[in-house]
Amino acid sequence: MQVYSFFPNILSSWLHLPLPANLVGMVLMLALIVCRIIPLSWVRAGARWLLAEMLLFFVPAVVAVVNYAHLLLWTAGAFSR
């Protein structure tokens, strides 16, 4: 797994891709699954867990938006231009 997380970083840097390494890694993982190099069963358990707990990952972002809503409303004019 360490190789998988290190390889997209090197690949993105070596090819001077304007994409972040995590996006390169996701595309690489999709290609490996579609080409049936990595069986879907290897990924299925982790994917199910992530989908089941997805709400937990969004709670801090929602709390931050609620806590700083006044700043977002104050700077809304800058975003609309």
UniProtKB/TrEMBL annotation:
InterPro entries: LrgA/CidA. It is a multi-pass membrane protein. One of its GO terms (cellular component) is plasma membrane. Keywords: Cell membrane, Membrane, Transmembrane, Transmembrane helix. The keyword Glycoprotein does not apply. Its main location: membrane. It is found in: Cell membrane. It holds the Pfam family LrgA. The chain crosses the membrane at residues 20-43, 55-76. This is Holin-like protein CidA. The lineage of its organism: Bacteria, Pseudomonadati, Pseudomonadota, Gammaproteobacteria, Enterobacterales. The gene is cidA.
